[in-house]
Design goal:
Helix content: 25-40%
Strand order of the largest sheet: 10-9-8-11-12-14-13
Largest sheet: 7 strands, mixed
């Protein structure tokens, strides 16, 4: 059985997405795990989730971001890349770490069991239900069920940035809607759009492993004929224009993709951008206006924002 090294970094809320992206870029196998105490407290209070015996989290300022790396000849170079990346993040946003990087050896079997003890079926929004692959669930009424193994990739629907996107997609997706999903990760938002009736969905991710995992998840849910997944940077490889573009990333990347969004978005289309911490909302709005996009709706949850934008008339 293969052995893995768990790399964990305790960070501020502001740094979560940047650190998660760094760990993914360094070759994290099977995604990135984010232990957000604010989210855990919210889930404990939700009637739709069971979190075993996890106690109420008192210190909500520290978020633990973890990733797993196969113990092979490439491990040391990956760890060096992570440390250099952390220094770069600190030079950009200031001190964000709580203590040193933590390491723990873990077997593949132990890893799977760790995920299973924390994640259970939950409903996000009015229609979408996220179901771990090892549980069974019978949909009620108009519910749409997505089967997903949380250990396979970043994006389980539980983080505030993703749940706000899912809730907003329930309002934005129509049957004549063509969708582009930027940085698809596990493919959860692409699958949500397809299950809500989008005419077509094209999902893109720069990470080869994420593309592989998204395709696996999409196939598991019987959506391969509805969703195209390609490897590329931002909107690379997407043909034509879309009625809805989704980007659940971070503020800096959202600002970076704005010129492509304007070119790829149809006149009455919508751009749904999430992964924005409240402190960066003003920066995103300023950049959006410079590219002819207007904020139409802003959702807030646990210090994060999800924004719906449209082209100025």
């Amino acid at each position: 059985m293969e052995s893995w090294l768990q790399v964990s970094i305790k960070v501020t809320h502001e740094a979560v997405e940047a650190v998660a992206e760094l760990l993914r870029d360094a070759g994290a196998r099977n995604g990135v795990e984010i232990e957000d105490p604010l989210l855990l407290n919210q889930l404990r209070e939700s009637a739709t989730w069971e979190l075993c015996d996890i106690p109420h989290q008192e210190n909500t300022e520290v978020v633990t971001v973890s990733a797993y790396y196969l113990e092979n000849q490439e491990l040391q170079s990956r760890l060096d890349r992570i440390e250099e990346g952390l220094k770069t993040i600190e030079s950009r946003i200031g001190k964000f770490r709580f203590g040193p990087t933590l390491f723990r050896k873990i077997s593949e079997k132990d890893w799977a069991n760790t995920w299973k003890q924390y994640f259970h079926t939950t409903k996000v929004g009015k229609k979408i239900v996220i179901k771990p692959s090892w549980e069974t669930y019978a949909p009620q009424g108009e519910e749409k069920v997505i089967a997903l193994d949380p250990g396979m990739a970043f994006g389980t629907g539980t983080h505030a940035t993703t749940s706000m996107c899912i809730q907003r997609l329930e309002e934005l997706v129509t049957s004549d809607c063509d969708v582009f999903d930027v940085g698809t990760g596990s493919g959860i938002l692409a699958m949500t759009a397809a299950l809500l009736g989008a005419r077509s969905v094209h999902a893109v991710d720069i990470d080869e492993k994420a593309v592989e995992v998204a395709r696996e998840n999409i196939a598991q849910n019987g959506l391969t004929d509805r969703i195209a997944v390609t490897q590329g940077n931002l909107l690379d490889g997407t043909d034509g224009q879309a009625d809805l573009i989704i980007a659940n990333i971070i503020a800096d990347i959202i600002i970076m993709v704005l010129p492509e969004v304007v070119a790829k978005l149809r006149p009455q289309g919508r751009f749904l951008a999430s992964g924005i911490i409240e402190e960066r909302l003003g920066d995103v709005e300023k950049a959006a206006k410079e590219h002819g996009l207007t904020f139409l709706d802003v959702k807030r949850k646990a210090g994060w924002c999800a924004v719906t934008m449209g082209k100025e008339a």
